[in-house]
Amino acid sequence: MADSPLLPRRGPSRSTWLRARKARPQLILSRRPRRRLGALRWCGRRRLRRRLLQTQAAGADWREDGCLASRAAAARRPKTAAPSPASSPTPSPAPAADPDSSYLATLPIPPVRPAGPGRALVLLPLEQGFTFSGICRVTCLYGQVQVFGFTISQGQPAQDVFSTYTHTRLAITAVHYSVSEKNKKEMKREARTLLKPHLNKDDRCWLMKNFSPLCSIVMLEHLKTSTVNFIISHPGLSYVFVQESPTFQINSEYFALRSVGIKREKKKNGLRLTESALSAMEELVSVSCEEVDGCPIILVCGAQDVGKSTFNRSLINQLLNSISCVDYLECDLGQTEFTPPGCISLLNITEPVLGPPFTHQRTPQKMVYYGKISCKNNCENYIEMVKYVFSSYKRESPLIINTMGWVSDNGLLLLIDLIRLLSPSHVVQFSSGRSKYMPNLTPDYVDDMDGLYTKSKSKIRNRGFHLPEFTENLDFVDEEKESPVVFTGHKLMCVQSDFTFRKTPRNRDSHNKVLRDLAVLGYLGQLQPPVPKPLSPLHSLTPYQVPFNAVALRIIHADVAPTHILYAVNASWVGLCKILDDVRGYANGPILLAQTPICDCLGFGICRGIDMEKRLYHILTPVPPEELRNVNCLLVGAVSVPQCVFKSQRGLEGTIPYITTDYNFKLPGASEKIGARETEKADEEKLPPRPRRCRKTN
Asked: Of 90, 263, 422, 561, which is the most exposed, with the fewest CB atoms less than 10 Å away?
């Protein structure tokens, strides 16, 4: 039994060597003694792979039995009849009780067949998955499959699936579907009718030859979107969607998937949810579909890197299988799902989420720009913004609330405040062996604990503001204002996380920074024209001209002197907001705000330049003009434009705008320390307020 795990490794090595040995006339291999593929060095494997590729290009074909033979040799080989069961020396096995069990035994790997340029067919037996990496468009031609919890049936529109290398690989799994009382012949006739508009005769014959009841037929197509094209146009980011790695199984399936733009992955690299996560998800879907006690409010909490976002995406997809829409409240500033980082937003989701956040940036119903990826220095402003956004929830569909991974010290107290404020019906608490200890947030625990700004029922402590004053403007609060706590209780659902991929504390910050930059690039990808039009670099697009006296300015994350505020705005990521105050009437500008307002954010853009003579801001944004008419405030936060936008765009020649080696860290706002000023030196230098493009010095 101890040697049993080594047996699967021996099979592929032997079969690969046999393919190379039978291809000896084409490969012109030397007459050296036979060696195991596992004993070959890296250079030897590379030479073998190159020779196999040369043979494939020369016209060789891969046989169904895994052997390589040239087409000429196949034509000269005489046809022989298959041995009959009676003449077979081995006894025939007993018939299986399940009619599909024999088919599953003879087909352990889903067969893939090319169906033209950029297209491939996948025949999936029941409950068998196809794990892959890359991006493609998935169409279910017959049967029913499931991707990331979302069910795709025959006749439904195609879905764009993004299985990137920054997240866990996705899989297409055939699921059970209801069929009428028909025999296999009638089912094949029905499948042939459905496949006729999409496939040619040869492909249909191949599918019908391998057809089995309750199987599913999937069409995979090459996919390119403007967002993907924009992201991969920057050097170093193409690996997000496609990675070239050495492989030793060069066959027709490999080339078919390569033409689509994907690659088969091992099942262990795919998404695997724990039993507790699946059980909690099943219960939440059941409660959301019943609607006995109204629409449920589901709050998901836990430490960093325990799978909260993955659980939320899968839950959204499973809910969309039964209901038309799901509301989503984003309270995580660092790793937002549908918006650029630094936002608190409320969205109504009607389409499945089949990829990472940077592939599905969407316009929220209500959004506030906090301006930082953490609220540790200003939790009061954060909780006020959550209250402002949550007031727009209409309770017409289930609500999923995503929270931050900060669950220690004040973060835990802030989470208790959120539970009291939002009054969820279900709290899904994630935990893992590597995460920090977090107490179970039962209703009794939340009632007995003081939050950061709220008081418990058993203790009276004057700490911050009272919850009744804190929630007096919410429509759903009907309890008496005199009560120190407004909390109706919830059901706690504990989920044990066990993900194979985990970020270490050393690379967590850099990995999250990459994901935030990808989210910003995904948002800027909306500026690109639709495919198949060519890609347009950002420096070639025409920006909007905004007069100084039409918008107000505010720097959120730092204390900047008024004489240098235009330096901070230039070449920055700005939130396009709408405040209630009327900023018109000022003859000159810029108009500066003394405090950060809590207001609606309609979108984002880049302040590409500032014209001091005409007193204009040049803003580049994908927000439509009809929405831009309502913008009267520009907020600048700690979220920055990715460096690749400045340094790695196509078409840049000579000196690069906004890139300089001569940078003055003594300017107010240039230091990372908030409020660090050197007023005496700034007054002595008397730098002019006119901003200009800094150019790289030689």
From this structure: 90
